[in-house]
UniProtKB/TrEMBL annotation:
Upper taxonomic lineage: Bacteria, Pseudomonadati, Planctomycetota, Phycisphaerae, Sedimentisphaerales
PROSITE patterns, alphabetized: XYLOSE_ISOMERASE
Protein name, per record: Xylose isomerase
PANTHER family: PTHR48408, XYLOSE ISOMERASE (PTHR48408:SF1)
Organism: Anaerohalosphaera lusitana
Binding site for Mg(2+) 2: 268, 271, 307, 309
BP-aspect Gene Ontology terms: D-xylose metabolic process
Amino acid sequence: MNEFFPEVTKIDYQGSDSKDPLSFKHYNPNEKVLGKTMAEHLRFAVCYWHTFKGLGDDPFGGPSIIRNYNASNDPMQVAKDTMHAAFEFFTKLGVNFWCFHDRDIAPEADNLAETNKKLDEMVALAKKLQDDTGVKLLWGTTNAFSHRRFTAGASTNPSPAIFAYAASQVKKAMEITHELGGQGYVFWGGREGYSTLLNTDMKRELDHMGLFMNLAVDHKKKIGFQGDLFIEPKPKEPTKHQYDFDAGNCVAFLQKYGLTDHFKLNIEANHATLAGHTFQHELEYAVANDMLGSVDANRGDMLLGWDTDQFATNLYDSTLAMYTIIKGGGFTSGGLNFDAKLRRESVDPIDLFHAHIGAMDCFARGLKIAEKMIADGRLEQKLKQRYSGWDSGFGAETEAGKVDFEKLEQYTIENGEPELRSGRQEMLENILNEYIC
């Protein structure tokens, strides 16, 4: 069997003093943090699409990256070589999970039946490689946005025939995710939105998407899939407005269509900033609503207004993310999936390793800093102090719903102008800097 990354053996933890760029400085998978290993906390996954199918193309130019596993003229041979390259990469990098779209791992044929046959052949290979390496599937998903049939959406398409095609594709993708032991299945509304309201019946499209998701829940039960279903917020791109705009919008959608018991959220950092939020905001909202499922770990460029999907190297973001995730109970079926791509000028295969090493170390450092924040408890103490008025007496009675407007008015008349207390924002930011620096 060909070796696709011969210049790399196995990426090992060498500690913060190491100068070897092909080593982990902070990610030690067996190191215990808050009672679990780093590997158990972080549950790193490599995405198939950007890592192995992304070739550096952008809206202004075609592919800039050449990969040796794309050498064959036979699309199925390319698919098989890519799969072998992927599992070689997973094992050399030392991640325990991977993620894919159906169309990432197998080429599309002239009709759905033939496409599914090709997909089955590739799933058999993936299953063998999973067994050989011990790498598991974090989650699968469906690419119902790249083909021209989905120009106007999938579940929200004006055509019932395209709705049916999308359902058929999701059906198959859920089945192969189940076959591969996937721990979850993600719905991302690639083109579930609109570019203009002049040709859009928004209510009907939302109703159709709600119907589609409920049908997916029914099929999950039918096939006995035990993994979680995730919905991934994104505000825009490629449409002007996506129906899965942000975490709050997704929770409202799930509530309206009776889906909150069946779905959790897959939060992506870059999508959060596109929605005008921070990564931590979206995580906190998901945790507050008991809806945090998984994370697409990347970052955007704050000077660019599109989904740049860069590798996560911002230590503040990773620290606050891990602080929120751990306080929220940590991952169960989800994890940190590197939905990130190399820059167009990073054309060498080894750049894939450098990118993932940096991001994994960044989250490992964030995890260790979050451990200190939780153990020390200063931030949590300050937060508790700020809301302490609600913990007893009149505040507790109010929070329990035992008062009405008349009683609230009476309290105000008797007690006069409320005392104003500082939020201590600057001090808290200084404390955060102490932990990080």
